[in-house]
Amino acid sequence: MRILVTNDDGVFAPGLLALARAMRSLGEVWVIAPDHNWSASGHVKTLHRPLRVREVELADGTTAYSSDGAPSDCVALGLMGLLPGEVDLVVSGINPNSNLGHDVTYSGTVTAAMEAAISGKPAIAFSLESPEDLSEPIDFSAAERVAEQVAAEIIRHDLPPGFLANVNIPCLPLEQIKGIKITRQGLRIYHDELVRRLDPRGVPYYWIGGGVPTGVPEEGTDIGAVNSGYVSITPLKLDLTAHDQIDLLKGWKWQDITP
Ligand code: MN
What we know:
Blueprint: E1 2-6, H1 14-23, E2 28-34, E3 53-57, E4 63-67, H2 71-82, E5 89-95, H3 103-106, H4 108-118, E6 123-129, H5 141-155, E7 164-170, E8 179-182, E9 188-198, E10 204-215, H6 222-227, E11 230-236, H7 246-250
Parallel strand pairs: 1-2, 1-5, 2-4, 5-6, 6-7, 8-11
Antiparallel strand pairs: 3-4, 7-11, 9-10
The chain binds manganese (II) ion.
């Protein structure tokens, strides 16, 4: 089992080291991660500049590759030939903040896993719901154990090509985590505010500010599970088709505007 580990927070983020450690009991671990923080960068394919890769050493002495590309570029590099041989599983994280509901479209952590799914490789994104205003360093130890056990259970099964799981872990000591729930995406509520200020030359600039996102903690959703102390596992797919609207649209008068 050859496992590619990546993240969107940068190669030296403590969550990446925790995930690399967690995967070591499951197979041969390779780390390729961005050289800086790409959080909320969405799904990126860098086509208009070269990608550079260098070898770095993580805090525990692990050799890793660092790239100036996005998280999804790091996965592409790993799957298209930077690593010797085939990759069996791609894992991304552990992101220090949750990726729930609509977050998956913004998340560099999740889109790195999506890149693997596009290449037909199974992938898991891991995020920890730590408070945004935490003053002390984040403790990834419980999330590390959860990641190891969740990945082990996923590996035990015959996975369909492009299997993609979005895992969110409540920020609790291991013994206080209530269990695991298989969920659907919930409804995220954003509290973004556009801040307009003037630069020193009097030209306006804009900054997206506002409060941290909340969500509707509905039963059966990722938000509901994490809010009530459970690890949430949401199976995702990249087919975003709104199947319930196909028949509706078919009934409209498209023949009138066909050239
Ligand atoms: Mn991040």
